[in-house]
């Protein structure tokens, strides 16, 4: 009976051990990917900084701030949410945190009579919202691990189209900001219309043009530049999201590895006790059995045995008594 | 002058150059030392940088250039150095674009694709 329990425990321990190896491997992979993802976040910075700088100079050159991407609608009937989540799970609260934040924001919008449109990145986001019966405008997947600029471009184009067609009057960008290895936070920011203050275009009136020559007209350059700015911003959000995803996964997998280790120690202890118990029981059985046999030479038990098992066993029993 | 070529994913070139030739939507421009401040939108075309160790040729798929304070910054989300150009891919892109143009002469996308393929072929053969 006790032997059965020991076998079950042994099986559980080996299964936990196998799980632990997997979570440990995932932890190490995630850790190495965070570094790469952070590198990409850094590598993307010069471009967006320079684009912002050019916009500032353009605004200073009197480019005018009447581009559709800069126009704030008088009445907002529908808000688009660009959601950056992961393709894969096993990364702690990373997906749920950002998805819940979006769901809450949509609830607030609904209570104020505004409709929503969802543009999603990551399989988990699509799964979450389709399961809950939300209508999804567009869903992208397959790049949450390592987003490329072209992915950001495709997404930004579809969002800008929604906005410029007037189907939505505002676009919110929801992603997880990577603050450090140990801390990431969900951010829901206004993505479109672009805030003139974000891009340094609000200084347009009083700053002088710095004597720039423009080719073509400043307004036309601005018209080409603003979509690039939106793309660069979305790209930065995707990159930060991916760095956060890896960081969250690393933490989750480290916790899982630690838990597996604890579980293993506990189960090993229980298993050892079960083994000792079963050994003790066995010894008790043997001892009490042999004692019962040797207790009394004239006893009834020996008679019964001798009667039923003559020959070899009987001589074995007497050998034993002699010894 | 200091020249930087920046793509969204990385800084592709950074260094001292004596001359920069690129193509804005209104035509080719060249920048020498101490050029007047300038902002331009780039067309699909070849860009050449006269660096200390020779001329660097690149195919640029649209972007921006800013010149100020004796430094030139080129921003492009589609810039390819000679060694990164896949000529066979460019050739097949060119054929596909030409077919699309034959079907519909007003297809802007195909016209741009053709220009981009031609630029890549031109840059790779010149480099």
Q: Which characteristics define this entry?
A:
heterodimer, A: 323 residues, Pyruvate Kinase, Chain: A, domain 1, 7 helices, 13% strand, elongated, B: 127 residues, alpha+beta, ATP Synthase, domain 1, 5-stranded mixed beta barrel, 28% helix
Give an account of the 3D structure.
The complex is a heterodimer of chains A (323) and B (127). Chain A has 323 residues and is α/β, with parallel strands linked by helices. Chain A has a single domain, classed as 3-Layer(aba) Sandwich (Pyruvate Kinase, Chain: A, domain 1). Chain A is built from seven helices and six strands; from the N terminus they run αβαβαβαβββααα. The longest helix of chain A has 77 residues, at 218-294. In chain B, β5 (54-68) and β6 (71-75) form a beta hairpin. The longest helix of chain B has 19 residues, at 108-126. Chain B has helices at 87-103, 108-126; strands spanning 2-6, 11-24, 27-31, 38-51, 54-68, 71-75, 79-81. Chain B has two helices and seven strands, in the order βββββββαα. Chain B starts with a strand and ends with a helix. Chain B folds into two domains: 2-82, ATP Synthase, domain 1; 85-126. In chain B, α1 runs antiparallel to α2. Classes of the chains: A alpha/beta (323), B alpha+beta (127). The interface between A and B is medium-sized, with 33 and 23 residues. β6 of chain A pairs parallel with β4 of chain B, so a sheet runs across the interface.
**Number of E-state strands of chain B:** 7
By CATH, the topology of chain A is: Pyruvate Kinase, Chain: A, domain 1
The CATH top-level class label of chain A: Alpha Beta
Classified in CATH, the superfamily of the largest domain in chain B is F0F1 ATP synthase delta/epsilon subunit, N-terminal
Main sheet summary of chain A:
5 strands, mixed
- Termini gap of chain B: 23 Å
User: Any idea what the shape of chain A is?
Assistant: elongated
Largest sheet of chain B: 5 strands, mixed, barrel
What's the helical proportion of residues of chain A? 55-70%
CA-based gyration radius of chain A: 36 Å
Number of domains of chain B: 2
- What is the total number of structural domains of chain A? 1
Find the CATH topology of the largest domain in chain B: ATP Synthase, domain 1
Supply the CATH architecture of chain A.
3-Layer(aba) Sandwich
| N-to-C SSE string of chain B, H for helix and E for strand | EEEEEEEHH
Oligomer: heterodimer
By CATH reckoning, the class of the largest domain in chain B would read Mainly Beta
Percent of residues in helices of chain B: 25-40%
User: Which structural class is indicated by helix and strand composition of chain B?
Assistant: alpha+beta
